[in-house]
Amino acid sequence: MDNRSIGIFDSGIGGLTSTAYIIEELPKERIVFFGDTARTPYGSKSPEKIRQFSMQIGQFMADNDVKMMVIACNTISATALEDLREKFPEIPIIGVISPTARVIANQCRPEDHIGIMATRATVKSGVYLQKIREKNPSLTHLYQKECQAIVPLVEEGITGSVMDELLHYYLDDFIAENELDTLVLGCTHFPIVAANIHRLFPDVRLISSSREIATAVSIELKKRNMEAEKKSGENVFYASDISDSFMNMIQLILGESKDKLNIQFKNLDL
Ligand code: DGL
């Protein structure tokens, strides 16, 4: 048993989608969330920059004495997971890509055509393709699509017709040309527009990285006997810029009024 907090982080608000699932699945766990809203998006930045920012967040989480770090960001998982594990060897660190790849490997059949939507950095890293092939070599119809511009629109809370246009721009040819039957939401910002994708492309099955990580966290805590006996305090949500859009989105994603949430400003860029 371990009543210390779980540290969850993302480049921005996307990680809140995973956090919502984790809170639902593990209500006794205290969460310390950090979203780097001042420096988002990460997916369009160089690996060096993403690593530098990720190390700062890792240090902040270690300073908060978290018992586990959860990288609720595909881009950081693809770019800086190994560096974080090397720098903080005493803290278990779970990335979002392996659990999602495991679900794809288990649920998909060899004849399925699987498209991975992700940020530019995640696509460039090729980590999704590598992990899926490792776990199930019979899945050979794998395709990737960089969908970077969805991230700033989500951060802005734009999910209406402008988002639909953008989804058509990214997905029409991608789905048709590759005869896709499955789309992987390989960025934790994308579940926020899952309903749009489902409405525009109803025949395509969606697999969400945000949901899969919650199950992985639960399994890992049990395996290590690190589950909390009781909640040790209220959840805290740190952001490097507490903007209006952050406030709107946190309420929307967590389904709580902002007055009930402990939201704090934290600048890591010192
Ligand atoms: N939410 C993130 C992910 O899962 C990153 C988005 C970004 O900062 O570009 O990849």
Note the main attributes of this structure.
270 residues, alpha/beta, Rossmann fold, 2 domains, six-stranded parallel β-sheet, four-stranded parallel β-sheet, 10 strands, 16% strand, binds D-glutamic acid
Give a description of the structure.
The structure is a single chain. The chain folds into two domains: 6-95 and 212-265, Rossmann fold (3-Layer(aba) Sandwich); 98-209, Rossmann fold (3-Layer(aba) Sandwich). The chain is 46% helix and 16% strand. The protein has helices spanning 15-25, 47-63, 74-87, 97-107, 120-125, 127-135, 150-155, 161-177, 194-200, 209-223, 244-254; strands at 6-10, 31-35, 68-71, 93-94, 114-118, 142-146, 182-185, 205-208, 236-239, 262-265. The two termini are 35 Å apart. The structure holds D-glutamic acid. The site of D-glutamic acid has 17 residues, from helix 3.
